[in-house]
Amino acid sequence: xxxxxxxxxxxxxxxxxxxxxxxxxxxxxxxxxxxxxxxxxxxxxxxxxxxxxxxxxxxxxxxxxxxxxxxxxxxxxxxxxxxxxxxxxxxxxxxxxxxxxxxxxxxxxxxxxxxxxxxxxxxxxxx
Length: 127
Known about the structure:
mainly alpha; Arc Repressor Mutant, subunit A; elongated
């Protein structure tokens, strides 16, 4: 993901966005493994993984949650215990936990490739 999109391609940079959107799934699953919670809380806690508040579109997060529910990675139920309007309470499933472990293996395997790329990049573009 580009750290400074304006410095090389402007807002149409194709190297930003997509990889981080894909990275939402393991982040959401890990947060839900910690505890069952509401979508708003998940959005707030994505900052732990480097997502800025402006980068985390609530619609995108809720679409991910719905898709993960369709895939049986999470379940949700209406929470009416808090007072005020009912909110969906999301919880990771056993299958979701398996996928979370698979993500960790995949990300760990890609970590070395990314580090190798960055070392080679820095040798060609020092500073």
